[in-house]
Structure formats: C-alpha cells, structure tokens
C-alpha cells in the first residue's frame, strides 16, 4: 500500500466499506476511501468480497416486500406514535391514509 496520498487507515476503510458501497459517505470521505482502495491491494480484495456479498444479498432478498397487513399495522403504529408525541387526541377510527 502506498501511504503518500493515503489519509485513511486499513482499519478505517474496512469499517466503512458498507457505507462506501451504499454511497452513504460524504464526498470527501468517499474520495479518501477510494484513494486508499486504489493503493491497498488487501483492502481492495476485501472490498471486492463485500461488494460481491452485497450483490448476492440484493439478488436473493431484494425483491421481497412486507405483507400488506403488516405494512398497515406499522403505518397505524407510526401514526399513533406521532400523534402521542404531538399531544393530539388519537382517533382509533382514522387510518394513516386519511
């Protein structure tokens, strides 16, 4: 690994690899991780393994959706929590889609 332009350690990069894969790093941090990966073969190899794992998970689990009944219960639960936190009366007859 070349350290001349490296402002991220192997430990830092490997702990942030999923953030990097999900594009959840800020642009400056993303650039630092990319520079590190460009210069560190062992981290690049590990990144490749994680990238393949993410793709596999997406292929095998990406198309599943929660059952509509569960989604409705969650919507109602969230609605109640929001109303309770705003000190408004909760009307059991109302639904989240009203």
UniProtKB/TrEMBL annotation:
Residues annotated as domain Putative zinc-finger: 10-43
Superkingdom to which the source organism belongs: Bacteria
A Pfam family the protein falls into: zf-HC2
Record-linked InterPro entries: Anit_sigma_mycothiol_RsrA, Znf_put
Q: Which NCBIfam families match?
A: antisig_RsrA (TIGR03988)
Q: What is this protein called?
A: Anti-sigma factor
């Amino acid at each position: 690994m070349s350290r001349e332009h490296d402002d991220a350690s192997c430990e830092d990069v490997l702990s942030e690899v999923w953030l990097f894969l999900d594009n959840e790093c800020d642009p400056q941090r993303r650039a630092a991780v990319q520079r590190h990966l460009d210069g560190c073969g062992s981290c690049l190899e590990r990144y490749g393994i994680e990238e393949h794992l993410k793709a596999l998970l997406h292929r095998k689990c990406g198309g599943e959706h929660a059952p509509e009944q569960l989604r409705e219960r969650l919507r109602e639960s969230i609605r109640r929590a929001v109303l309770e936190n705003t000190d408004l009366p909760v009307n059991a007859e109302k639904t989240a889609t009203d």
